[in-house]
Amino acid sequence: MTESTRGAGSGTRLTRRGRLLLGVLALLLVGGAVVLFLVLRETGGKVRSLLIPEGWRSGQVYAAVDKSLGVAAGTTRRAAADTGLALPAAAGGNPEGYLFPATYPVGSKTTPGGLLAYMVDTANTRFGKDHIEAGARRNGMTVYQTVVVASIVQAEADTVADMGKVSRVVYNRLAKGMPLQMDSTLNYALNRSTLTTTHADTRTDSPYNTYQRGGLPPTPIGNPGQQALDAAISPPRGDWLYFVTVAPGDTRFTADYAEQQRNVREFNRNQSGSAG
């Protein structure tokens, strides 16, 4: 959320993950037919699959690949640095944001570097479409910056329906020169996931601390899916500057700071009641 603390309903993630599984299988069977055919031929048809959910950070992806391929912990992280992935120059060699969420085929000859390259190639295909580039220009952003926005949207939105409004809050705050003050970026800096942020947290010295640093964080804070990317390029019109999810499925957006504070107090009461 913006301004202190937000509530994120975890129940929506499972539903969206299920939809992702069905949708991405079709994507890989069509868009990745050649790669899938090669894997099937090499393994005699014995193909497993690895699901990378929307919003996972690179560290989570690396750990999942290590486990899926049965290699030592840290192998995929090292492969990310050694493989020479086809990342945009702005990424500085960091694949965060470009490990596209999808269901990937895994065979006996699959390597960590090869699987990461497949994820990045998938991201480049999706992010390189004309309407993505046009949407980025329309918002005064590069495609890479748009992926950064999409990663924040993915992390902050409680539901798919909220994504567009969260995106609009990001752009509105940037336009006014306001710090984003997003808990998700601070969580990324602290390598955690939590619903609450303390005043001490907001003093963390990190380029991802958007309470103290202006503009966007230097990289994406996770790997966004297509819906978050769509929200980042085409947010609805609105004057919203603040939001908070006071309860699962109940995210409130406003341009009025006093109203935001009332909503935050309601969120805090709900959290206290849940803890009790």
What would you say this structure looks like, in words?
It is a single chain. By secondary structure, the protein is mainly α. The protein has two domains: 12-127, no CATH class; 144-275, no CATH class. The protein has helices at residues 11-31, 33-43, 58-69, 75-82, 112-127, 130-138, 143-156, 163-175, 183-189, 226-233, 257-275; strands at 48-51, 103-106, 242-247, 250-254. The strands form two sheets. The chain has a two-stranded antiparallel ribbon with strand order 1-2. A two-stranded antiparallel ribbon has the order 3-4. Strand 3 and strand 4 (250-254) form a beta hairpin. Helix 7 (143-156) crosses helix 8 (163-175), helix 7 (143-156) crosses helix 10 (226-233) and helix 8 (163-175) crosses helix 10. The longest helix is centred in the N-terminal third of the chain and has 21 residues, at 11-31. The two termini are 23 Å apart. Mean pLDDT is 86; it is low at 4-43.
Question: Outline of this structure?
Answer:
The protein has 276 residues and is mainly alpha-helical. It contains eleven helices and four strands. The chain has helices spanning 11-31, 33-43, 58-69, 75-82, 112-127, 130-138, 143-156, 163-175, 183-189, 226-233, 257-275, and strands at 48-51, 103-106, 242-247, 250-254.
